[in-house]
Structures are given as C-alpha cells and as structure tokens.
Amino acid sequence: MARTKKPENGTSTARSPSPSRASSASPSSPSGEDKPTGPLSIIISPEDREAIKVNNANATELKNACDDAMKRYLSRPELFKQIYLHTDVRLGLGWLSVFVAAGTAFYGYKVEFEKSKPVVWAGLILYILLTTLQTLYAYFIEGDVVYVGKRKTFSRRIVSERITLSSRTVPVERSKPPAYEVSITYVRSTSGGKSLLAKGKTHGVREYNSFFDEEGTMDQERFERWVGELVEQAMEGKSS
C-alpha cells in the first residue's frame, strides 16, 4: 500500500476548490432594478366598489363615469398619488376673476360714476384677461388630461414615477357606437429626474357598451382590468 508523501516543512497544503465548486459557492449576482407595483397586482374586493349607474344615451355621463373610475383605481395607496396642478390653476384663475368682478362692482356702487370709471375699466380689463387666461390654459395646456399621478419608491436609491392619462369620447361613426379613448404616458427616473429608467406611451380605445350594460350599470372590474393592462404596458417601456 502506497503512503502519502508529506511536505518537508511539515505543513499541509490546502487544495484549491474546483472551478465548479467555486462558482456554486460564490454569492449570486445582484438583481436588477426592482419592478414597481403595477395596477393588476392590486386585488380589489367587490365590497370596496360602489355601484355606478348612468344614462346610456348621454355620452358625457359615460365619459365622466369612466374618468372617475380610472382616478379612483389609480389613486389607491399602493399605486399613485394624484396631482391636482391643472385643477388648482383653473380654480385659482376662476376665483381671482370672481374677486376682481365683485370688487369692481362694489367700488362702482360706492363711488360716483365719473370718479369710478378708471377703476371700473381697469377691473373689467383685468377680469377679461383672467377669464381668457383660464380658457387658454384649459385648452392648450390641460387639454384632455384627466389624471396626473406621482409615486416615489426607495430601493437602494430614490425612484420617481409620473403617469399622465388623457381621455376623450370617440363620436358615433356609421354603425359604430361611441367609444372611450385613453392615452397614457409614463416616466420612471432617479437622481431627481436626471437618470431615465423607463419611459412608455400606450393608447387604447373601447366602446362604451363594453363596460356598461343596457341599464347603464358599469362593469368596474372589466374596466379596471383594461386600464391596468394599458398602464402596465407603459410601465414596461412599451409604446402602442
């Protein structure tokens, strides 16, 4: 029987592990950017929904019902926080014009007509200017935007997300009934918006009778699933 030869210095030599063992013992590589929570992962019980019923013959009611349902769905605590910038600007301009009109009328009532004319004219011009600004803002800046949401998550770094949804009614065309059209823009970034992580833009159209029955009751679960799919496509950086 052959004997093992010991080293002359009396110390034992440790054998290096084989490449296969070394690779299996090494720690796993760090995972990529955590995927943000999407709408479809949120489970909503039927008890959390209030029944929505509208007049099927009124396209405005149908659109408003869809807009409101979309806002409630995306504004859940696990998803986004709604930003009311457009609404605040319009309300601010509206209230300011009301105060100017009321102040001008009160001044004209208290002061003689000839003496009050310069102030009344100035108030009238300012009122027209504020009303015009409100109209131009609603038409050119806000447009069809019905929802703006933001969210910040903390995973190794601060990640900011912003989502914007616009909607409109596609009118009746020949035999086609009116439809609900929605456009979604999504941006995910970090470092205060300097580093872009994902950007997507999706678009979808569905006829109103896909979500409302003959009595005007809305199938909220079906509507939310459709909106959720569009939102998650945008979150994945897809464009359609």
From TrEMBL:
**Localization annotation:** Endoplasmic reticulum membrane
Q: What is this protein called?
A: Signal peptidase complex subunit 2
The family classification in the record reads:
Belongs to the SPCS2 family.
Compositionally biased intervals (Low complexity) = 11-31
Identify the GO cellular component terms for this protein.
Answer: signal peptidase complex
Taxonomy, superkingdom: Eukaryota
Q: Which UniProt keywords apply?
A: Endoplasmic reticulum, Membrane, Transmembrane, Transmembrane helix
Residues covered by region (Disordered): 1-40
Q: Name one Pfam family in it.
A: SPC25
Q: How does it sit in the membrane?
A: Multi-pass membrane protein
Q: Where are the transmembrane segments?
A: 91-109, 121-141
Summarizing the function annotation, the protein's role is: Component of the signal peptidase complex (SPC) which catalyzes the cleavage of N-terminal signal sequences from nascent proteins as they are translocated into the lumen of the endoplasmic reticulum. Enhances the enzymatic activity of SPC and facilitates the interactions between different components of the translocation site.
